[in-house]
């Protein structure tokens, strides 16, 4: 069997500038990978590189030729374990680049078998939790307006970015505009341990569900300090990058937040989910700002999750790819009529 692989960079403007405690993003550069079999059936995947983890569109493009050569060398798109192992052997790090290839191969393998990927994995579409919709940092009035707009659009689960000297004001505005929504917050490492513990007290009073990454990943003892004293469950994101991080965070948080772009592939993501379960952690899957070329693949994992944060495509002004429908945040895996991940060019 022979496979033919190509890639291209896509630049996608965001619907609104997106701000977290580390900075503001106005567009997203993804790299789309396509892998075709001899019959012309094509699997698609996407890389959404994150500078925080040392990747850019340029670094992804630099390593893709070697990664794709490895896939062509294996030749069998159903040899998922062998391919993902080879990808990790060919380049160190570069997880978003490897993930894009892993997604494209999984998409192709499932398409060749004529089933949606979640069916290939034997998962129950009805078990998928709703995705949260994220409200980035902004002027307090803008946060209130964006929250009201999200509620009007039907979203019942909101993730609010914090990490300012106005955090309490922001949450009061959110609660004003969305008294009934399920609300989670993400500080993106912005707080000190003591500050984080104090903030969980009034966040709990505001009915917040959990707090994501309160303190810097470089301070694991700080994370433990917060976890042991927090009034709310703690999710680890920047502290939870690869499989080997799972045992390290097991006594420092309640929820492991994995993202495909951190893991290096779909098999590795499933290993992380299994490892998190083995350590008694709940599991969340988040995302970068991503095209449906990769979000559709993350959605296939949704039945394995306690919490989904897969709004990457929803934050784009325009996504060149369609994926799994998420009306009002409901991940409609069961409505998926297409085999593979469900990602396809919007004009296809
Ligand atoms: Mg986060």
UniProtKB/TrEMBL annotation:
SUPFAM superfamilies: Enolase C-terminal domain-like (SSF51604), Enolase N-terminal domain-like (SSF54826). Coiled coil: none annotated. One of its GO terms (biological process) is amino acid catabolic process. InterPro entries: DgoD-like, Dipeptide_epimerase, Enolase-like_C_sf, Enolase-like_N, Enolase_C-like, Mandel_Rmase/mucon_lact_enz_CS, Mandelate_racemase_C, Mandelate_racemase_N_dom. SMART domains: MR_MLE. Keywords: Isomerase, Magnesium, Metal-binding. The keyword Transmembrane helix does not apply. Residues 140-233 form the Mandelate racemase/muconate lactonizing enzyme C-terminal domain. The keyword Transmembrane does not apply. One of its GO terms (molecular function) is racemase and epimerase activity, acting on amino acids and derivatives. It comes from the Archaea. Its cofactor is Mg(2+). CDD domains: L-Ala-DL-Glu_epimerase. Belongs to the mandelate racemase/muconate lactonizing enzyme family. This is Mandelate racemase/muconate lactonizing protein. It comes from Halorubrum aidingense JCM 13560.
């Amino acid at each position: 069997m022979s496979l033919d692989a190509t890639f291209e960079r896509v630049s996608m403007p965001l619907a609104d500038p997106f701000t977290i405690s580390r900075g503001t993003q106005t567009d997203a550069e993804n790299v789309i990978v396509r892998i075709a079999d001899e019959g012309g059936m094509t699997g698609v995947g996407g890389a959404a590189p994150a500078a925080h983890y040392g990747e850019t569109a340029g670094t992804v493009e630099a390593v893709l030729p070697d990664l794709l050569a490895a896939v062509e060398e294996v030749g069998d798109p159903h040899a998922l374990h062998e391919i993902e192992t080879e990808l990790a052997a060919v380049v160190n790090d570069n997880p978003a680049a490897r993930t894009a290839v892993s997604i494209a191969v999984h998409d192709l393998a499932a398409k060749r078998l004529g089933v949606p990927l979640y069916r290939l994995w034997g998962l129950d579409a009805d078990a998928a939790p709703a995705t949260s919709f994220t409200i980035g940092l902004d002027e307090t009035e803008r946060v209130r307006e964006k929250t009201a707009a999200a509620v009007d659009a039907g979203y019942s689960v909101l993730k609010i970015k914090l990490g300012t000297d106005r955090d309490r004001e922001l949450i009061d505005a959110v609660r004003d505009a969305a008294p009934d929504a399920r609300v989670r917050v993400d500080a993106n490492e912005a707080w000190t341990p003591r500050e984080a513990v104090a903030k969980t007290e009034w966040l709990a009073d505001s009915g917040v569900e959990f707090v994501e990454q309160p303190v810097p990943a470089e301070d694991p003892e700080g994370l433990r300090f917060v976890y042991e004293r927090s009034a709310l469950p703690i999710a680890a994101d920047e502290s939870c990058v690869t499989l080997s991080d799972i045992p390290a965070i097991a006594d420092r948080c309640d929820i492991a937040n994995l993202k495909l772009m951190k893991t290096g592939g779909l098999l590795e993501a499933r290993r992380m989910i299994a490892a998190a379960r083995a350590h008694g952690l709940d599991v969340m899957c988040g995302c970068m700002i991503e095209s449906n070329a990769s979000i559709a693949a993350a959605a296939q994992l949704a039945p394995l999750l306690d919490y989904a944060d897969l709004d990457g495509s929803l934050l784009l002004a325009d996504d060149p790819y369609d994926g799994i429908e998420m009306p009002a945040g409901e991940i409609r895996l069961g409505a998926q009529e297409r085999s593979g991940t469900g990602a396809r060019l919007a004009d296809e």
